[in-house]
Amino acid sequence: MDIQVGAIPDGGVRAALERVDELMSKSDYTQAMENLTDCAKANLLPLLKRLGICKFQLGDSVGAQVAFKHALEYDPSDADVLISLGDICLGTNDNRQALDYFSHAVRHHQMDVEAALGFYYAANGMNDSAARQKAIEHLRELNPEHPLLAEAARRPMPALSGACFNHGENYFGPVLLNPMTLAVRAASLVNWEELLSFHHLLVTDPYVAYVDAYYRAGVQRFGDHWRYWDISNVLFAASKLIQPRRYLEIGVRRGRSTCIVAQACPQVDIVAFDMWIPNYAGMENPGPAFVKAELGKQGHTGAIDFIDGNSHVTVPEYFRRNPAAKFDLITVDGDHSEEGALDDLCNVIPHLNPGGVIVFDDISHPLHPYLLDVWHRALKRFPHLAPFEFIETGYGVAFAIAMS
């Protein structure tokens, strides 16, 4: 912890207090308060910095944190104090709080490399690929030759803790979750009951009203014996099991799938691609503002990035601008043409984290019977995917888990 604490003024305190007394005698309490605040800041801030350093060096990180937080009251944008607090949080694995401190430091001191480095380490500790990429880009602007950039390029984001397993030498590979486990969870009565507790709130068109009634009839008649899978129960189960940090969706429409993910994992960050074609599939397509409002109703607290346009242009462009971006959950439900659907799949699969899940909808839709073959073609290109598919009833759904 190497910070510049500044010099403590060696004079002028008595004169400043005399000036305050003079102002108070004139009942100018507002100006007196301002003078007192300036005097306290000038004298207490460097003292508190020194106190924080001494306590930290003596192993009292709690006392150091108290001192630095007190210093922050005098100057909320002091880079030294923010970085010191961030370092303390990193040392206690409180990466989220560390990220807040370093983010504040970077915002006020954009040329401070130490603040940028702290932001990177906190983002990496949180497995936040978006913040990590932002930190890398900022470091690149400050110093294109910084050695951390080469390290960051070599080291991918850590795998999903909920889906993966590490016990030294991984004889069975790094991913614990398998397709059958996800499928069983998705078809379970517990999953259906949780999903149906809010699904009726997403009924915004005749098709979703029909699907909601279909779900309820299946659960009511067959209970835990009902074996049915589609995009809704698969996405809800996947989100519950792996708690995705970042979710990518191609084909948003009215946002039902997005809201289902957000219900299961409110803090997830979402990147959503759509062309927002009016009256898509004969039904109203109101646009991003509607979807954002729906997400708000579901208690979503993560970031949301709507990207408008043709996914065959916008998705590759997004990854050109964010080459290190990775996602834990991906849905492809956009272009239903044969080559278009394959293109969407091939554009996003390389950006799926180990243990992540990709969902592909409508593989047995009567208007698009070739989509099952499209799915199989994609699997041949990406053999690290472990798949599951269902085509018996409904419009069919497929998903796969990235096993490496």
Can you offer a commentary on this structure?
There is one protein chain. This protein is an alpha/beta fold. It is built from 17 helices and 7 strands. It has a 7-stranded mixed β-sheet, with helices on both faces. The longest helix is centred in the N-terminal third of the chain and has 29 residues, at 29-57. It is elongated, with a radius of gyration of 27 Å. The two termini are 38 Å apart.
Quick description:
The protein is an alpha/beta fold and 404 residues long. The protein has helices at 13-25, 29-57, 61-74, 79-91, 95-108, 113-125, 129-142, 147-154, 179-187, 189-199, 206-222, 231-242, 256-264, 288-297, 311-321, 338-348, 371-381, and strands at residues 246-250, 269-274, 304-308, 327-332, 352-361, 385-390, 397-402.
The gross shape turns out to be: elongated
CATH architecture heading of the largest domain = 3-Layer(aba) Sandwich
Query: What is the radius of gyration?
Result: 27 Å
- The SSE string, one letter per element, is HHHHHHHHHHHHEHEHEHEHEHEE
Largest sheet: 7 strands, mixed
Report mean pLDDT, rounded to a whole number.
85
Going by helix content, strand content and strand pairing, the class is alpha/beta
Approximately what portion of the residues adopt beta-strand conformation? 5-15%
Distance between the termini: 38 Å
